[in-house]
Automatic annotation (TrEMBL), chain A:
Protein name: Putative D,D-dipeptide transport system permease protein DdpC
A Pfam family that the UniProt record links to this protein: OppC_N
Domain ABC transmembrane type-1: 101-290
Topology with respect to the bilayer: Multi-pass membrane protein
Keyword terms, alphabetized: Cell membrane, Membrane, Peptide transport, Protein transport, Transmembrane, Transmembrane helix, Transport
TrEMBL record, chain B:
Gene that encodes the chain: oppF_1
Membrane topology of the entry: Peripheral membrane protein
Protein name: Glutathione import ATP-binding protein GsiA
The organism's taxonomic lineage, starting at the top: Bacteria, Pseudomonadati, Pseudomonadota, Alphaproteobacteria, Rhodobacterales
Organism from which the protein derives: Roseovarius halotolerans
TM annotation in the entry: none
Gene3D superfamilies, alphabetized: P-loop containing nucleotide triphosphate hydrolases
GO molecular function: ATP binding; ATP hydrolysis activity
Amino acid sequence: MSASQGLREWLLAEEPTSRRQARWASWYKGWLTLRSNTLAMLGLFVLAFLILAAIFAPLLATHDPFAQDLGQRLLAPGENGHLFGTDSLGRDIYSRLLYGARISIYIVALVVMVAPVVGLIVGTVSGYAGGWIDVVLMRVTDIFLAFPRLILALAFVAALGAGIENAVLAISLTAWPPYARIARAETLTIRNSDFIHAIKLQGAGPFRIVTRHIWPLCISSLVIRVTLDMAGIILTAAGLGFLGLGAQPPSPEWGAMISEGRKYILDYWWVATIPGIAIFAISLAFNLLGDGMRDVLDPKEDHS
Amino acid sequence: MSALTVSDLNVWFGVGAERAYAVRDVSFDVAKGESFGLVGESGSGKSTILRAIAGLVPTWSGTMVVDGEPLGRRRSKAFYSKVQMVFQDPYASLHPRQTVDRVLSEVMHLHGVKDINTRIARLLDDVGLGSGFRFRYPHQLSGGQRQRVAIARALASGPSILLLDEPTSALDVSVQAEILNLLVDLRSEHDLTYIMVSHDLGVVGHLCERIAVMQQGAFEEVLSVADMRRLEAKSPYTRHLLESSIKSIR
Amino acid sequence: MTDAPLLDVENLWVRFRTRSGVFDAVRGVSFTLGKERLGIVGESGSGKSMTGRAILRLIRPPGMIEADKLEMHGEDILSAPESRMRQLRGGRVSMIMQDPKFSLNPVMTVGQQLVEALRAHEKVSRGEARRRALAMLDEVAIRDPERVYELYPHEVSGGMGQRIMIAMMLLPSPEILIADEPTSALDVSVQLQVLDIIDKLVRDRGMGLMFISHDVNLVAKFCDRIVIMYAGRIVETCKADELRNARHPYTLGLLNSVPDLEHPRERLEVLKRDPEWREAPSVSARQ
């Protein structure tokens, strides 16, 4: 019996013999469910590929993303060693794409660290406490929900100046309310479960109940929502970039690249289209992965 | 001294004109080591009484005294180490993302129990689950096994009174027999007092000595199980209930 | 009478493809159903509910139904097209399930659901359908049919909901009724009422009844013939009044593990599940 077979058996064991084994076993089963979903795996690969491309950008790039060469402007893809051609300032699009991936992922990571976390806290506290705390927190949520993302971003940029961090802040401020709503809805359901009553009967206080019993159950809906929101967040960031409110030139942010390529779209389609395809790819990947995650975390039918 | 005394208990839901009484003017006494049953149809208020004792119901009036100590709005840690509850639905009473080990260790931790490891092993043994079940998740356990874990959780703090809310009604008949046997054994081993709610007179007859028959929130009659077996009941409702139960199993 | 039996099932298998292999919920079950009351008893996981659903072809992929013979009144239903099955479901064979909370449509009134059930199978005018629905509600002992007709399912009690369910399922006058734990969600006193209604209707209309339950004593009291299922197979079959003479250890175990109000015992008998029971071939309950 080879080592990998032994590991697989250990993971699928009927009777785990340690906490670690039980936890690894449930992760493994989740992985198996995800793996059986071809579209989700496709999304995962595309995402992994883009993340790796971003990490290894310095190694993979063929040119300096900021190097301008007016003698080489608007070259078609494949000409002169430029894989995806060059833009209006002669910068290599392929290399800019790779470094731009870093920016997109940076934006996504920042928003993910802020919006769902804030939403989780607000939602679960609101749902568990009930009463006036619930009312106040939900009205605050409503206020933030009422802001259209792009308009708020414009306001922020007008007040604080353009830049990636401000764009991220603006996106996060409008992204957290739906998570609060989801977390609150879950909390309201879970709150009345017998297992919550049972732990209350052991003398557990509200803090322990919310953080150790309710949060683990809300996490799945939030993760699913986050992966599906990713596409929207990237598009918003691209939109901000397009409007000149996000990353500032000469930063190779994908939205900004599309904006710069707008003027040339009829004759030099690749300048705007190729970053557009990149945005499409990453959004689609997140969507597919999100769907797959839903099957893993919130299975409607038991496949085990 | 009785283990539990309840006097003029009223439980209601809703406010003002919308107030609906789930329990009306209920009074009873349970002696130490006794097994007392609450029977009635759905909506009769029997589970509500258990929840009121456990402190899970906010709006109630009357007095409840456990081991000489009257109960107030909130329950103390000391109360939880004396009184514990086993819930009806084994599929809802365990946290779906926690292993058996996690559930039991958390409970023991909350009660300040030392050497949790050995205690868990002993508890699982007590309820008839081997050590192989220790690190399983609830979805890897059958209904009967889950209920055993729920019983283990209730026993973890070393209580003297167990509130049993229809502990076997969601289980298959053969599994029910195992759990009932277990409850009988545990009662004698740990000298427990049971207050059990059930709609099944056969189950109540097996486990209890005295029962109260409830209808629409009030006690219809309190009788001994011996009388119940002889179908000797004073109230026509009780008689009707007894006859229906007999007819449906014979 | 040389009629084909109402239901003729031979070697029925229901399989599900799962990640860890194929799971067989029903393994080689054979029985026939005439104008009688057949009880199918088993615990959860025995395959009894799956058998009922397989007959109605209500099992969706990845479930697969296989059988040597699956006929209703001589007509093959194993390979019948879905359009024919739709005609049969409700029209020739109906099913009542456990909890009316989940089997009645919560956004339609009782009357609307009854009328829909009838008009799906017979071409009747709305007025005629309403008349028959009210008559049916009366037949299931609902005291104020006109009032109940306008109610929504959440406004009626469990027992009444179940009676409405029965009315709905019997309106199109099917020949076979499959009742899957029809009284398990009801209080004891209401259970008897509902059973009496099912009894009367099945008798009056000369229907065949397949009564699926986990309660062996209830089935013994209510049915003519009993089939005991375990792990997807039939382990024993007998006449209801001969249940006391059952021979299979599983049947005896089921009977003995119920706490009897009138005959107390120190300890209840615990079923020792012999792996042999799972492996032994299915007993045929064909007549």
